[in-house]
């Protein structure tokens, strides 16, 4: 007899969602967590960062109040109050997960778990817990850039940046993925001078070039500096300042003086020292290799979230957890997550929302496609609320009109993208959205107009 039907190692968006789904399906479930319930996302990731973004946008909106003749006294502004709000949001949601564990009768064991046989995890080296099935959901941590190791003072990780209670005057951000640009958005709004260095020739390298160009222009108007095709080589500290040596694509070097450096060059999987090698679970480059239903090479052991070779996103982890648990329970879920149905979201202003391949990817694959775009400025609501910057781009098959991908940049793009994603998932065609009545005035009308552009009859073009 086993202690549990299912043991889950880690309680991030993959682990705790899997646990709740397992309880709903009648599986006796336990979570082992060495830190706080909710993992990185709830405690030092998605949630507190979005709280900071919200506060930053409120602060930045002060310029709009001034345009109305309202004078603002910022002399007593203290960033620590912003920090406190972000921690409050994280604490509330972590406690919410704790409540859900109790509500669903899921046991939670605090400690570090190591796989010691295919049906057993040893906690803190002394307590053995057995289960018929195991899901590994140990997540990831910020990747270290050699020469710029995190010290929490000069060189910051994304976690360190979230915990700042006093902002620097000048900040260098190395890496221009979603994390780096969201922090650029936050800190710039509070008056920090921002320089972003990116080794690739485009910021947000995996996003669509046309939508990224809109965001970059917006950020540059706010005073941010972007150095693409540039490497950060080293830094030296003197008199409280950091001098960073940069190398351009032509190998010429320059220096930049800043107060702090934020390194945001991706994340590293938490797969070492948890017993994978002992059991012979196959890994590649730190990722756990999985087959259908997120099964590892050992029967009864599954892996989900940032430790498998899929986009390291909270919603991907949650969906993978649901699939694995439903398979364990004897249901017939999807065998895997389709990459072209994974939404991407960048919470800057303007926002970027997307799914499916970029134009560059389609061109590289030789896939024939057509595209239609429509600007936010052609939508009444966007103009009325002074959020007319941006566009929607839909890529589709020119013969069948099948939707291949969508790339949005603009107000609430991370919300609006889901209408097109639903159409893609349910195999609707552009004409179905084009002919569907949309409330006026709404931002979602930009989707309707884009689909009408596919059909050749956009009204407000």
Largest β-sheet summary? 7 strands, mixed
The average pLDDT value, as a whole number, equals: 97
Shape: globular
* Total number of beta strands: 24
Low-confidence stretches: none
Report helical residue fraction: 25-40%
Structure class: alpha/beta
Strand content: 15-25%
Gyration radius (Cα, Å) is: 24 Å
SS summary, helix count: 15
Report the end-to-end length measured between terminal Cα atoms: 67 Å
Give a brief outline of the structure.
The protein is built from 15 helices and 24 strands. It is of the alpha/beta class and 461 residues long.
Characterize the structure shown:
- With 461 residues, this protein is an alpha/beta fold.
- The chain contains 15 helices and 24 strands.
- The chain has helices at 15-24, 39-44, 46-60, 62-67, 79-103, 158-162, 178-189, 209-221, 276-279, 314-328, 359-365, 380-384, 413-425, 430-434, 445-455, and strands at 4-9, 29-33, 107-110, 113-117, 120-123, 127-136, 140-142, 155-156, 170-174, 193-197, 225-227, 231-238, 241-247, 253-258, 260-263, 267-269, 283-284, 287-288, 301-303, 344-346, 351-355, 370-375, 391-396, 403-410.
- Strands 1, 2, 3, 4, 5, 6 and 19 form a seven-stranded mixed beta sheet that branches. Strands 8-15-9-10-11 form a five-stranded parallel beta sheet.
- Helix 3 (46-60) packs antiparallel against helix 5 (79-103) and helix 3 (46-60) packs parallel to helix 7 (178-189).
- The N and C termini lie far apart (67 Å).
- The relative contact order is 0.12.
């Amino acid at each position: 007899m086993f202690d549990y039907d299912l043991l889950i190692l880690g309680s991030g968006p993959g682990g705790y969602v899997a646990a709740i789904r397992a309880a709903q399906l009648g599986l006796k479930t336990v979570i082992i967590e060495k830190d706080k319930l909710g993992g990185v996302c709830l405690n030092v990731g998605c949630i507190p960062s979005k709280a900071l973004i919200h506060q930053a946008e409120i602060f930045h909106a002060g310029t709009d109040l001034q345009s109305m003749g309202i004078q603002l006294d910022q002399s007593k502004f203290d960033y620590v109050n912003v920090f406190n709000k972000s921690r409050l949001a994280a604490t509330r949601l972590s406690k919410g997960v704790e409540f859900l564990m109790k509500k669903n009768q899921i046991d939670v064991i605090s400690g570090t778990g190591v796989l010691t046989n295919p049906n057993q995890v040893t906690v803190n080296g002394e307590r053995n817990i057995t289960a018929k099935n195991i899901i590994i959901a140990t997540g990831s941590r910020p990747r270290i850039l050699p020469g710029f190791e995190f010290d929490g003072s000069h060189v910051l990780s994304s976690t360190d940046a979230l915990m700042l209670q006093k902002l620097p005057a000048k900040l260098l951000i190395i890496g221009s993925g979603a994390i780096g640009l969201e922090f650029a958005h936050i800190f710039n709004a509070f008056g920090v001078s921002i320089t972003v260095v990116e080794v690739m020739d485009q910021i947000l390298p995996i996003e669509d070039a046309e939508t990224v160009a809109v965001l970059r222009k917006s950020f540059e108007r706010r005073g941010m500096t972007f150095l693409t095709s540039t490497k950060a080589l080293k830094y030296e500290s003197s008199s409280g300042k950091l001098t960073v040596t940069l190398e351009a694509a032509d190998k010429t070097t320059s220096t930049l003086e800043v107060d702090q450096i934020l390194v945001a060059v991706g994340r590293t999987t938490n797969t070492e020292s948890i017993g994978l090698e002992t059991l012979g679970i196959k890994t590649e480059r730190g990722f756990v290799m999985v087959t259908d239903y997120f099964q590892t090479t050992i029967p009864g052991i599954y892996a989900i979230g940032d430790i498998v070779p899929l986009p390291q996103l909270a919603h991907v982890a949650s969906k993978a957890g649901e699939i694995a648990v439903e398979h364990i329970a004897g249901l017939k879920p999807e065998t895997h997550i389709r990459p072209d149905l994974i939404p991407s979201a960048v919470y800057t202003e303007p926002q970027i929302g997307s799914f499916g391949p970029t134009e560059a990817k389609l061109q590289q694959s030789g896939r024939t496609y057509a595209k239609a775009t429509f600007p936010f400025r052609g939508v009444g609501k966007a103009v009325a609320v002074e959020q007319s910057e941006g566009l929607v781009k839909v890529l589709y098959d020119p013969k069948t009109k099948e939707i291949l991908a969508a790339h949005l940049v603009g107000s609430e793009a991370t919300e609006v993208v889901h209408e097109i994603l639903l159409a893609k998932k349910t195999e609707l065609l552009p004409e179905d959205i084009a002919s569907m009545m949309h409330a006026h005035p709404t931002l979602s009308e930009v989707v309707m107009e884009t689909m009408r552009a596919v059909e050749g009859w956009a009204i407000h073009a």
